[in-house]
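Reviewer 2 asked us to include a model.

Predict the structure of this chain.
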Amino acid sequence: MSARLTPTEKRTQRNRSKLKKRAGGKLRLSVFRSSKHISAQLIDDAKGVTVAAASSQEKAFAAKNKGSNRDAAAAIGKLIAERAIKQGAKTVVFDRGGYLFHGRVKALAEAARAGGLEF
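Predicted model (structure tokens):
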């Protein structure tokens, strides 16, 4: 018997399945946010590997910024864009998960675009 999914899990799965169908071989920029931190990772769904990642929990980052505000999210967006371009990925698909495109998620996305990623 399978476990029931919460509405948040259903929304996340629905968004990800649609993105994977439309991605056309592009890498997926996935965002996770909690009440204290935010993280992003660049995922190659064809191979099932993470190409690049950035988080507000990294020691170098945590010493400078608090991880739960829009400024920290923008810094993570800029950092993931730098790491993605270093790996050779310029065009990605943005996966907001089940979160609204608002606040910290939006700040991360705009900073990643400003950092050179296209989506």
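The domain at 28-114 is CATH 3.30.420.100 (Nucleotidyltransferase; domain 5). Strands lie at 27-33, 38-44, 49-55, 92-95. We have added this to the supplementary material.
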